[in-house]
Design goal:
411 residues, Rossmann fold, BirA Bifunctional Protein, domain 2, elongated, 16 helices, binds histidyl-adenosine monophosphate
């Protein structure tokens, strides 16, 4: 047998059903926030990601030369595509609020919560410079997690690249990009080695101060008390205040800088409160990407959330939907009544129920066994009673069986 590739998943009906319930909930939350669904190509020119995503993500692409000699890739993220789509539509009324839930591909080493193919929910707002849009996007991300039963099980950690940059400058650091890149890797290197490297980039004094700052984590009002950096401080306090109006509490954590190169302001990640898993989702503000693709200057803020870590944490918390298939009705057929049974199935299907029907001409006993295996809630036995407009209905949970008028179940 030919094995499937490492880091890819086969999705059988049981898993797919659970996933669909979760995905539908996420999409409907986005709709309730006034976001509109889009979709995009799964393959793009590699160039698109070279422009602004950063070397790391380009290294991770599933890229190849197509038959026309073009260098193309399966998409490793959606943000450049969405920015391109936005840049080529001048007629859109701002703010634009879009969401999508595509598959994407990254050639990473597969491990817990990290795959080579995954789904990633994306939501972005374009055209708003102010922190109001950051708040709306953050509130959506948190409402999604809350509505999935994860309230209190995660922490929304927010930072600000502008504030960090101001802080680094104030400490006399010149190699700011390098410092960001190192801070982004903080949790992946031992503290000693991290400090050593930070000292190399920032100098002894700044490194010491930064070590303290990077450890701060708490309510913005609290954390900002110890940081003296004017205007951005007010912006962050405003963000926190707005989120309180949404009923959401964020945590300020200045060690969050995010790996992608295009972020220009607020950045955030939702983390498992118990610290077992990687980030559940990540995003931030990227005000300079749309114009790179030929649009006018369009501020933007959004986030991406993969299905892999989400599934792990939901399973741990016991809120991932049960992985089993089920149908509302199974139509069991007494020999000689197939056409009548098909009519009954179609009536129920038209009424909106999920209905399976015997296709194998098996004995009634075997049909009942099959109905049990596929978790049918009710079995409708179609036999001679149908001539009087009646069927036998068995409630598979209670085991109660009764003869009822067909109109009672078809409505
Ligand atoms: P990202 O941090 O690269 O950001 O990915 C966002 C989320 O996608 C991660 O937190 C994780 O849930 C999921 N993810 C990423 N890589 C993998 C993987 N190999 N396997 C499973 N899940 C993964 C972005 O992609 C940005 N484009 C998000 C964004 C949208 N920023 C603004 N708008």
């Amino acid at each position: 047998m030919i094995q499937k590739l490492k880091g890819f998943r086969d999705m059988y009906p049981e898993t797919m059903r659970a996933r669909r319930i979760v995905f539908d909930k996420i999409n409907s939350t986005a709709r309730r926030f006034g976001f509109h669904e889009i979709d995009a190509p799964s393959v793009e020119r590699l160039e698109l990601f070279r422009v602004k995503s950063g070397d790391e993500i380009v290294k991770q692409t599933f890229s190849f030369e197509d038959k026309g000699g073009r260098e193309i890739t399966l998409i490793p993220e959606l943000t450049p595509t969405v920015a391109r789509m936005l840049a080529s539509r001048k007629d859109l009324v701002k703010p634009v609020k879009w969401f999508a839930f595509p598959k994407m591909w990254r050639y990473e080493e597969p491990q817990s919560g990290r795959l080579r193919e995954f789904y990633q929910f994306n939501a972005d707002i374009f055209g708003i410079e102010g922190i109001e849009a950051d708040a709306e996007v953050l509130a959506l991300a948190m409402e999604i997690l809350d509505s999935l039963g994860l309230k209190g099980k995660y922490e929304m950690r927010v930072s600000d690249r502008i504030l960090m940059e101001e802080l680094l400058k104030k400490y006399g650091v010149e190699r700011i990009e390098e410092a960001f890149r190192l801070i982004d890797k903080k949790d992946k290197i031992p503290e000693e080695a991290f400090y050593e490297e930070l000292r190399n980039i920032c100098g002894e004094d700044a490194a010491e101060k930064l070590m303290d700052i990077l450890k701060l984590r708490g309510a913005p009002e609290q954390v900002l008390e110890s940081i003296d950096i004017g205007e951005r401080k007010d912006t962050l306090l405003k963000l926190s205040k707005l989120l309180k109006a949404y009923g959401k509490e964020i945590v300020l954590d200045l060690s969050i800088v995010r790996g992608l190169a295009y972020y220009t302001g607020i950045v955030f990640e939702a983390h498992d409160a118990r610290g077992e898993f990687r980030a559940i989702l990540g995003g931030g503000r990227y005000d300079n990407v749309v114009e790179l693709f030929g649009g006018t200057h369009t501020p933007a803020v959004g986030f991406g959330m993969g299905d892999a870590v989400l599934e792990l944490i939901m399973k741990r918390e016991g809120v991932w939907p049960e992985e089993r298939v089920e149908v509302d009705y199974f139509i069991a057929i007494v020999p000689g009544f197939r056409e009548r049974a098909i009519e009954v199935a179609m009536q129920l299907r038209k009424a909106g129920a999920s209905v399976d029907i015997d296709l194998s001409n098996r004995s009634l006993g075997k049909q009942m066994k099959y109905a049990n295996r596929i978790n049918a809630k009710f079995v409708v036995i179609v036999g001679e009673e149908i001539e009087k407009g009646e069927v036998v209905v068995k409630n598979m949970e209670s085991g109660v069986q009764e003869t009822v008028r067909l109109s009672e179940i078809t409505g």
